Amino acid sequence: MYDFLIVGSGFAGSVLAERIASKLDKRILLVEKRNHIGGNAYDEFDDNGILVHRYGPHIFHTNSSKVFKYLSNFTTWRFYEHKVMANYQNKLYPIPINRTTLEKYFNKEFRKDGYARKLLNSLSEKRHPILNSEDMIVNQIGTELFKVFFETYTYKQWHKYPKELNASVCGRIPIRVDEDDRYFSDKYQFMPAEGYHILFKNMLSNRNIEVELNTDYRSIINSVKFDKLIYTGPIDYFFDFVHGHLPYRSIRFEYESLRQEYFQPCPQVNYVDDSVPFTRVVEHKYLSGQKSNTTTISKEYPQFDGEPFYPIPTDENRSAYKKYKAETGELKNVIFCGRLAEYQYYNMDQVIANALKIFNKIANGK
User: Fold this and answer.
1) Which residues contact 232 (CB under 8 A, 6 or more apart)?
2) Closest Cα partner for 230 from 319, 321, 41, 361?
3) 338 and 309 Cβ atoms separated by less than 8 Å
4) 3-class SS at 350?
5) pTM
6) Which position among 34, 274, 281, 359 has the lowest Cβ density within 10 Å, counted as fewest Cβ atoms?
7) Three-state secondary-structure class, residue 271
């Protein structure tokens, strides 16, 4: 007999399992269909001893001291600021766009931020209201830079053009006029010193938590007694696709181990040309800070088939999700939490913050 059955061991499921077990002293069965805990944040050492992120780079960044303090209970940290460059016609440009990007692209020198700001103001095409991601970016930098750095890359990533996607997709990426080349500007930017797999192991090392891997919850739900269910998987799967399949974007990864110290000058290079089939190359030992004579890279090929990674944020898809959301109101003692269960394009820290918020409601009997 368990107090909670939790489906999925990513951040949403693991945070709730840890809080409920340690603070409420409740018994939990945590089921995971994969052969490891940690969801898409899982990392492991490859054959060459390089710590690789198996489902794409997961860079921890947040402005929330509450989230950072909470995770610090389960890991020590390594200071890390993520750097990204765009490969356009075999030339590398800092991303997000900053003053250095503009100088290199236009082959001009802008000695002061004000000159770069004036250039962007002259290029921008004011759009009102902002209805989609194209409007969001063209409003800031104009059509030329939008087509070079955003349009093709976004289509490869989502199989949707920016004008088909909510403004929040491209709106996540800032436009800068200084020389700041950090991908994020959050207060807390770190990586778990021993890797995410150790963070999750520490999080779930509680006598009240029983973990069952390689298990689809449907195979055990009728044979296990529990009081409440927390579900973090795809919401359409939970309801047997009664309102149809919600579209998700998946990724196919190609890993290569290379007998050289480094492959590229920064952790991540985005390929913004349509002549290149993959979206980006990640060099993993930048993320861990390891020193080695070999290196491991991964190339990412977005696709529809495969594990669901990203809800596709369009108005049409959001409307389809709301049909499933309405179904949840008919259920008692079932909580839906996380990117897939809420069909929401959350960052990691947002998933954690939301899980902590849901825990507080559970603790207060709501």
Assistant:
1) 6, 7, 8, 10, 12, 13, 336, 337, 338, 340, 341
2) 361
3) no
4) helix
5) 0.95
6) 274
7) strand
User: Other CB atoms closer than 10 Å to residue 1's CB: what's the count?
Assistant: 8
Among residues 297, 286, 308, the alpha carbon closest in space to that of 59 is found at: 286
DSSP letter, residue 148 = I
Per-residue pLDDT of 133-160, as tens digits, reads 999 999 999 999 999 999 999 999 999 9
Contact criterion met (CB below 8 Å) for 302 and 320 = no
User: Per-residue pLDDT tens for 41-89?
Assistant: 999 999 999 999 999 999 999 999 999 999 999 999 999 999 999 999 9
Q: pLDDT tens digit string along 55-65?
A: 999 999 999 99
Please give the full DSSP string across 299-316, using - where no structure is assigned: EEEEESSSS--EE---HH
CATH topology of domain 2-37+204-247+311-363: Rossmann fold (3.40.50)
- Domain boundary assignment for the chain: 2-37+204-247+311-363, 93-171
